[in-house]
Design a protein that fits this description.
It is built from eight helices and twelve strands. It is of the alpha+beta class.
């Protein structure tokens, strides 16, 4: 089954629910600070080269939800710490999301469905304040999945924003029990976020992080963010807010991959999750990173500043998948033709 990275009109109930995400109402944008509103507008209007994924097998597709919301005058993003009992990436930070199912009408629905399963995020139209912003071109995971980020806004249900408090707090919910999330008492805590509950089998923790800090990790100090101490969740040095290393990955055809790690109030943001949020932050704020995002292919040449090697790798995987699907379809036609002509015995 082919899935689209956009919302597909359909008579099915889930497609009707997706239709609720098409537009951000004017009143929702007016409740944002001018800075946050400008970020949302940049994301809504950005011109991106999105490849056609309609010929990709469903088993190769996945989607994650980049849910943005404003608190204390800044955009934050919802994150999870994966359960340590999971076989894949246990204990790591992730965006809500997962593999596409055959029954998904689109990759937008995939992201919403997975967020509902993992953290209990209400599905539209039950939650009418979740608004679709855009989708990004797919990222390639180490397991060769094409992961489409779906960016959405959780709009405020309260009055327009007030000045930021002197000590901002972040949402943290522990999945050790099935109790209601232990969110901080804050006038900026969103009712929808307060209602989230981690899936006992998939999520150990729900937390958030300021999006702008993906551009410059040192902004965390200015914002007074709570950060984990050096230890299991941050083994990279007590004085560090950001850590990086370059590794050669067989999964990326031997290319050198730059692993970014960002300190948070919970598990570090790293790997694919970091790559996605870096892209979202760059588009939203319209400015450069304070660190080098990509390594050189050789490890000694100039930096691949535009990520051309990575984009070429993603394009290659898409083309390989398309050829594999075409070969299977051709094989099926040959079998059917053989049966029709009486050349194949059953």
């Amino acid at each position: 089954m082919a899935l689209s990275s956009t919302i597909i009109p359909n008579s099915a109930p889930k497609a009707d629910a997706e239709k609720c995400l098409r537009d951000i109402p004017t009143h929702a944008l007016k409740r944002l600070t001018p800075k946050s509103r400008a970020c949302i507008e940049r994301l809504r209007t950005c011109q991106l080269d999105r490849p056609d994924l309609s010929r990709q097998p469903t088993c190769k597709l996945a989607a994650v939800l980049v849910l943005l919301y404003e608190q204390a005058g800044e955009l934050r993003v919802l994150l999870t710490t994966r359960s340590k009992s999971l076989r894949a990436h246990p204990g790591q930070t992730a965006l809500p999301g997962g593999k596409a199912d055959e029954g998904d009408e689109s990759l937008v629905w995939t992201a919403l469905r997975e967020a509902n399963e993992e953290v209990g995020l209400p599905l539209p139209p039950k939650s009418s304040n979740i608004h679709f912003i855009t989708t990004l071109p797919p990222f390639l995971s180490a397991s060769q999945l094409l992961v489409t980020p779906v960016v959405a806004l959780l709009s405020s249900l309260s009055s327009p924003p007030s000045p930021a408090p002197s000590s901002p707090s972040s949402l943290v919910s522990d999945g050790a029990s099935n109790a209601s999330p232990n969110t901080p008492s804050s006038p900026f805590s969103h009712p929808t976020l307060k209602s989230l509950t981690p899936s006992l089998t998939e999520v150990d923790r729900i937390f958030d992080h300021p999006l702008e800090a993906m551009l410059d990790p040192h902004l965390l100090l200015n914002k007074g963010e709570s950060l984990v101490d050096e230890g299991e969740d941050w083994p990279y040095g007590a004085g560090e807010l950001y850590n990086t290393s370059d590794v050669r990955l067989n999964a990326f055809d031997g290319a050198i991959y730059r692993m970014h790690r960002f300190r948070t109030c919970a598990s570090p943001i790293k790997g694919l999750t970091a790559d996605i949020l870096i892209s979202v932050a760059e588009l939203a704020y319209g400015r450069k990173l304070v660190y080098a995002r990509y390594p050189s292919d050789s490890g000694s040449g100039p930096e691949d500043g535009e990520g051309e090697s990575y984009r070429a790798l993603v394009k290659k995987r898409i083309e390989e998948n398309e050829r594999a699907v075409a070969a299977l379809e051709e094989g099926g036609r040959m079998i059917l033709t053989g049966k029709a002509d009486g050349h194949i015995e059953v």
